[in-house]
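In full, the data.
>
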Amino acid sequence: MAGTVEQKLAALGIVLHTPPSPVANYVGFVRTGNLLIVSGQVCVDPEGKLIAKGKLGAGVTVEQGNAAARGCAINLLAQVKAALGDLDKVVRVVRLGGFVNSAPDFLDGPKVLNGASDLMVAAFGDKGRHARTTVGVASLPADAAVEVEGIFEVVS
């Protein structure tokens, strides 16, 4: 039976998939003590198709970027579930780091990353409120519009 967090996700129409394997020399997550650090997740759907491709401010809208960031957050949670077996073992979402494939004059990266932040709060309530960094970058793997990494405090 799904835990409380997964039930909240299901009510939002989200079912977690098996996360994809890393494409280079890294792992999807590392646990050290009570921290789970999840590698950056690009904005792919469960079939591996990019939710948004290209640059924000040059063909990709804030709304499309927001949806892409939400997709990254879903992929983060899929990695957390793979690591812990149960999202209810998350004590707190500590930090999200977001990378936005941006045109040089694009200034709305924080609005884009709200797609990831909003999902964490919807899933975990107050435990989902986190510190965050949003950085505009010149490019991302596969020309993905957004990538998000995360740090989670988990039960011992």
Observations:
- The longest strand covers residues 90-101.
- Strands lie at 29-32, 35-42, 55-56, 59-60, 90-101, 131-137, 146-154.
- The chain has one domain: 4-154.
